[in-house]
Design goal:
This protein has 355 residues and is of the alpha/beta class. It has helices at 34-39, 46-55, 73-86, 103-106, 150-163, 182-191, 207-223, 259-269, 289-297, 309-316, 331-345, 347-354; strands at residues 58-65, 91-95, 115-117, 120-122, 124-127, 130-134, 169-175, 198-203, 227-232, 237-240, 247-249, 255-257, 277-280, 301-304. The strands form four sheets. An eight-stranded mixed β-sheet has the order 5-6-2-7-1-8-9-14, sandwiched between helices. A two-stranded antiparallel sheet has the order 3-4. A hairpin with a 2-residue loop joins strand 5 (124-127) and strand 6. Helix 2 packs across helix 5 (150-163). The radius of gyration is 23 Å and the shape is globular.
């Protein structure tokens, strides 16, 4: 337990050896370190000083959170980082989803390794102004499961914050796992002294997701992290009509592909239909979606991003959806959200002043 580090064999939700409740809280019952923690001298965690020094060169820190998994939070984190870098900001993307690190794949960095320098761990770079750090770079096999308890996960997050050398950067985007548990408490505690600009919360439109997002908003309010805004992702399946596959079902469940026939018919009989965009509500939005929830909870609503198969493909291929014209449905929505975020926080003006 040197330097106040949480031992690997500690119970889940360990308050930490330096906490006033160390060895005394309910989560300490039955822990092999309970007596040692209860009698150990208390004091400030010296690692927090190292974190503050390391973070001094990072101007803005943004958490990307979600109440529920599978809502596209990592996809949004990746595309936000791509967009900020394309605007000539210096950007770092930190993946603290320890058990499900998908950021290396979404940035096209699978198989890369972390390198050590005399300044600390070096991020893996996509571009000269976009660096990435993730446990995914540390696994010998990408299919290996990370079966860690809370204390060990918290220890790695602390190590990422104090040992990774980002240099002078404008933004550190932190992609967090879903929920409001250990990793979230740790990142807030470790960064609190250095200042967190706020959190972007990603959700899908249906109530089963928004129920959890409400908890995420309340978590941010309790720990003093401003909510920069909520993004409603997968807000309807949206794609050109000609990208759809058309089928005819039979009584025995067989599906017959009639796509070619339908497209040919439209081309001959109604060519104006070839330019139409089809929108299908995948999730139930009768409850008003994220916009209504934001109004009720008095937090900013940043906008909606449609479920765009081409954005999903860009994420699979580890590339920016802004770099070409292939993501025509999602790019305008993402651009609008990022412009609103920059304008609300005056980050664009800051960049222009520093040029």
């Amino acid at each position: 337990m040197e330097n106040g580090e949480i031992p690997e064999n500690a119970n889940e939700h360990c308050p930490g050896p330096q906490s006033e409740s160390a060895g005394k809280s309910d989560s300490c019952q039955g822990c092999p370190n309970q007596e040692a923690c209860a009698t150990a001298p208390k004091g400030p965690d010296p690692d927090l000083v190292a974190i503050a020094e390391r973070m001094a060169t990072v101007k803005h820190k943004i958490l990307v959170l979600s109440g529920k998994g599978g809502v596209g939070k990592s996809t949004f984190s990746a595309q936000l980082s791509f967009a900020l870098a394309a605007m000539d900001f210096q950007v770092g993307l930190l993946d603290i989803d320890i058990c499900g690190p998908s950021i290396p794949k979404m940035l096209g960095l699978e198989g890369q390794d972390i390198h050590q320098s005399n300044l600390g761990w070096s991020p893996v770079y996509v571009e000269s102004n976009l660096g990435v750090m993730s446990i995914g770079f540390m696994l010998p096999d990408p299919d290996e499961a990370v079966i860690w308890r809370g204390p060990r996960k918290n220890g790695l997050i602390k190590q990422f914050l104090k040992d990774v050398y980002w240099g002078d950067i404008d933004f550190l985007v932190v992609d967090a796992p879903p929920g409001t548990s250990d990793e979230h408490i740790s990142i807030v505690q470790f960064l609190q002294a250095t200042g967190i600009d706020g959190a972007i919360i990603v959700t899908t439109p249906q109530q089963v997701s928004l129920i959890d997002v409400r908890k995420e908003v309340n978590f941010c309010k309790k720990v003093g992290v401003p909510v920069l805004g909520v993004v409603e992702n997968m807000s309807g399946l949206c794609q050109p009509l000609t990208d759809f596959k058309f089928i005819r079902g039979t009584e025995n469940g067989e599906q017959i592909d009639v796509t070619e026939k339908v497209i040919k018919y439209m081309r001959e009989k109604a060519p104006e239909m070839l330019d139409l965009i089809a929108l299908s509500e995948v999730f139930d939005t009768s409850g008003g979606g994220a916009a209504k929830m934001c109004m009720e909870m008095a937090v900013p609503f940043l906008g909606k991003v449609p479920l765009d198969p081409k954005l999903c493909k860009a994420a699979e291929e580890g590339r920016s959806c802004f770099a070409d014209q292939k993501c025509g449905m999602s790019v305008p929505a993402l651009k609008s959200i990022i412009e609103k975020l920059l304008a609300a926080n005056q980050w664009n003006q800051e960049l222009q002043m520093n040029e």
